[in-house]
UniProtKB/TrEMBL annotation, chain A:
Family membership noted in the UniProt record: Belongs to the AHA1 family.
InterPro entries: ASHA1/2-like_C (IPR013538), START-like_dom_sf (IPR023393)
Protein name, as recorded: ATPase
Coiled coil segments of this chain: none
Range of residues in the leader sequence: none
Source species: Pedobacter frigoris
Occurrences of domain Activator of Hsp90 ATPase homologue 1/2-like C-terminal (ranges): 23-150
Xref: Pfam families: AHSA1
Lineage: superkingdom: Bacteria
Entries under SUPFAM superfamilies matching the protein: Bet v1-like (SSF55961)
UniProtKB/TrEMBL annotation, chain B:
Organism this protein belongs to: Pedobacter frigoris
Keywords, sorted A to Z: DNA-binding, Transcription, Transcription regulation
UniProt keyword Aminoacyl-tRNA synthetase present: no
Top-level division of the source organism's lineage: Bacteria
Annotated SUPFAM superfamilies: Winged helix' DNA-binding domain
Domain HTH arsR-type residues, every copy: 1-90
Cross-referenced NCBIfam families: HTH_metalloreg
UniProt entry tagged with the keyword Transcription: yes
Protein name as it appears in the record: Winged helix-turn-helix transcriptional regulator
Amino acid sequence: MEQKTKINAEEGKQELVITRQFDLPLELLFKAYVTPEIVEQWMGTKVLKLENKRHGSYQFETTDPKGNKHGFNGVIHEFVANQKITRTFEMENTPFAVWLEYLEFEKITENTSKLRMHIVYKSVELRDQMLQLPFAQGINMAHQRLEEIVSKLK
Amino acid sequence: MNLRRDVFQAIADPTRRAILMLVAAQSMTAGLIASNFDTARPTVSKHLQILTECELLKQEQNGREIYYHINAKKMKEVADFIEPFRQMWDDRFNKLEDIMKDYLPNK
């Protein structure tokens, strides 16, 4: 099966590009990014604030399985409906430096559209670290499951 | 003489995977890493030695302390470590697509 979501992360660069084609008209794809209740559903986060305008800002909050709250926020630098959003992204209370996201929305046909997400990090190291996070979380989860199984055997 | 360490062997151990997970989030000293485990400190040191020998971890001197950090290049050899990242976004976007299909006219 062809992968609908593609990641381009070149060796030694502090940026990466995520591209995805959607079986959705451009307007609906864009709506998913600007409507708080919809963002909450697909991002799996609470939307505390989302000002869709130039110099607006946003604030998200997720709760992990242990009940810890994690905050994310950023400032919107460019906002052109159905075309682009340029924003910063900050993971609160982490050592990770703020990064810059360029989101470009494009119509392919009446019923299909494309998103290009270009992320620029402070350093190559930070980019590689962010790429590793889900991998690390994956092995962490596997580890926790193993611990649960082992503790049941005791 | 030490047997040549194999990266796959290295990550087969749950404690070593947990160490990689910790260090992936933040560079740490051996002491700080050990404080996250109930295992005896020499055991953790042994794990760190193995992970360093197979180059999954790199040591960096910072003043009097030695910090361990992830060697991203080597991690790529272990598995396609970008895949979980891609999968995470793919899952999100699939969800987005599903949700928005309800908003399509005539459906």
